[in-house]
Every structure is written in structure tokens, then in C-alpha cells.
């Protein structure tokens, strides 16, 4: 955000996002749109007025995260620390792969590792595209359009949990 004092950041959608604001420039203005709170026509007009005053609009929206893949990374690290990834046929890991882990087991170089079952895999790029399309629809009610080619995904964390977000420019329709 090159000029925070001339920028409006729209938190788009009903996912909790306001916790990120303290980590963003204080000079920018922030407003939530298409959230789980009721919005009046006066609120929508105020958002449009803020954008007119500020000049540049940005949208902050959730990015897709594959919680199953992250869970498997943590479980594989734990299995390695406990020595469960070695041994005859990795028996315990093989048994756990069915329940409760629900994963495939791959053995390579005498070590085992849980891998994602194809039916549990998430297409992150498709999820992000869908989130951008939904955000664009939601912004249309404000006379705004998301500029998808400007979107970038950034990492953010709460403790050890990843909560990535998409940062996009917004223009008037």
C-alpha cells in the first residue's frame, strides 16, 4: 500500500479478519463489507464516500488453506520424532493411516510418511479464484470491482495456525 493515508481497505466477506488491522498501516481507513453484520443503504453510501475521499481501494479477503495437508505435516513430524516412521513395515503408522489419520502411507528409503488421499486434496488455486469471484459479486453492491490480476496471497498466523489472506486492488465499476 504505497499511500496508506489515501487508502481504504475493505474487509470482504464474513470470515473474521479485523484481527489483522493492528498489523496494517494505521493511516489507512478500514471498513467491513458483505459481512455477517446487517448493512444499511447509508452504510453502503458511507463506504462509497470513503473510497471517493481516499482515492485508492484495496480488498482483504481470505485465502484458501489446506488444513488436511498441514495436519499431515504435523503428524509426520510427530511420527518422526517418536520413531514411528521406521521399523518393520511401519506397522503402527499403517494401522493409524486408516483411522483416525485417513491418509495413504508411502515407504521410501526405510522411512514411512503419511500422504494425502486424492479425494481429500484441495485445489488451493481454485479455492482462491472462487473467493475472488465471490468477493467481486459482493463488491458489486457497492459499485466496486475487484481487480483479480492484482491479487496476491500473504501469510498470517494465529499461534501456529496459518490464516493466509488475499490482498487485491479495487476500482469503481
Explain what you see.
This protein is an alpha/beta fold. It has two domains: 4-65 and 123-172, no CATH class; 67-120, no CATH class. The protein has helices at residues 41-54, 67-81, 91-98, 124-140; strands spanning 7-12, 29-33, 56-62, 104-108, 111-115, 144-154, 157-158, 161-162, 165-172. The strands form three sheets. A five-stranded mixed sheet has the order 2-1-3-9-6, covered by helices on one side. A two-stranded antiparallel ribbon has the order 4-5. The model has no long low-confidence stretch (mean pLDDT 90).
Q: What Rg do the Cα atoms give?
A: 21 Å
Given helix and strand content, the structural type is: alpha/beta
Number of strands: 9
N-to-C span: 21 Å
Q: What amount of the residues lies in strands?
A: 25-35%
Helices, by number, come to 4
Helix content range: 25-40%
Q: Mean pLDDT, nearest integer?
A: 90
Strand order of the largest sheet: 2-1-3-9-6
Q: Return residue spans where pLDDT drops below 50 for at least 5 consecutive residues.
A: none
Q: Per the principal axes of the C-alpha atoms, what is the gross shape?
A: elongated
Instruction: Give the topology string: H per helix, E per strand.
Output: EEHEHHEEHEEEE
Number of domains: 2
How would you sum up the major sheet?
5 strands, mixed
List the helices and strands and how they pair.
Blueprint: E1 7-12, E2 29-33, H1 41-54, E3 56-62, H2 67-81, H3 91-98, E4 104-108, E5 111-115, H4 124-140, E6 144-154, E7 157-158, E8 161-162, E9 165-172
Parallel strand pairs: 1-2, 1-3
Antiparallel strand pairs: 3-9, 4-5, 6-9, 7-8
Amino acid at each position: 500500500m504505497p499511500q496508506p493515508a489515501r487508502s481504504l481497505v475493505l474487509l470482504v466477506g464474513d470470515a473474521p479478519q479485523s484481527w489483522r488491522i493492528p498489523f496494517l498501516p494505521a493511516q489507512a481507513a478500514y471498513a467491513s463489507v458483505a459481512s455477517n453484520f446487517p448493512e444499511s443503504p447509508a452504510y453502503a453510501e458511507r463506504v462509497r464516500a470513503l473510497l471517493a475521499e481516499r482515492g485508492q481501494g484495496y480488498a482483504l479477503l481470505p485465502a484458501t488453506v489446506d488444513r488436511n495437508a498441514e495436519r499431515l505435516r504435523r503428524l509426520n513430524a510427530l511420527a518422526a520424532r517418536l520413531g514411528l516412521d521406521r521399523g518393520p513395515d511401519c506397522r503402527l503408522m499403517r494401522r493409524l493411516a486408516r483411522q483416525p489419520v485417513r491418509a495413504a502411507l508411502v515407504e521410501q528409503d526405510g522411512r514411512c510418511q503419511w500422504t494425502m488421499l486424492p479425494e481429500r486434496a484441495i485445489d488451493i488455486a481454485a479455492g482462491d479464484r472462487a473467493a475472488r469471484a465471490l468477493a467481486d459479486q459482493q463488491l458489486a453492491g457497492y459499485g466496486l470491482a475487484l481487480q483479480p490480476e492484482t491479487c496476491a496471497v500473504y501469510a498470517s498466523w494465529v499461534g501456529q495456525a496459518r490464516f493466509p489472506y488475499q490482498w487485491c486492488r479495487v476500482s469503481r465499476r
